[in-house]
Amino acid sequence: MMKYQHIKLLVVDDEPAIVDFLTLGLENEGFQVKTATDGLSALNIVKTYQPHICILDVMMPGMDGYEVCKLMKKVCQISIIMLTAKDEVEYRIKGLCGGADDYMMKPFSFDELLARIQARLRNQFPYLLSDLSIGPFQVDDRRKEIRFNQKVLKLSATEYELLKLFIVNHGIVLSKSTILEKVWGYDFNGEDNIVEVYIRALRDKIGDKEHKMIRTLRSTGYRLDIQ
Question: Where along the sequence lies the DNA-binding region (predicted)?
Answer without folding.
Answer: 129-226
